[in-house]
Amino acid sequence: MRFFSFIDPRIPEGIISDPLRIKQVLSNLLSNAIKFTPEDGLVIIEINLSRNKDGFCLINFSVADTGIGIPERKQKQIFDAFIQADSSITRRFGGTGLGLSISANLVRLLGSEIVLESVMGVGSKFYFTVEAEVSTDSSPADNFRNSMIKACIITGDMEDYSFKNLESYLSACGCVTQVCGNFADASDAECGLCFIIKPGVPLDSITVDDLRGLKSPVFAVSDVDDLNEYRPEVREVLSDQLSHPLTPEMIFRTLSAVSDLKNTETDFPEETVGKTELKFSGRVLVGEDNNINQRLMMLLLKDYGLDVDLGGNGLAVFEKFRKDKYDLILMDINMPVADGLETAHMIREFEKDQSLQETPIVALTAKALKGDREIILESGMNDYLAKPVEMDKLEAVLLKYLAAVEVDIPREGFPIKDIGTSDNVYYDLKKTALELKIPVNVLLNIGRDFFEDTLKVVDDIKAAVEVSDCHSIAAFSHKVRGASANLRFVELSEFFLILEEKAARAENNFDYGSIIDNIVNELNRLKGYF
Question: Which pTM does this prediction carry?
Answer without folding.
Answer: 0.50
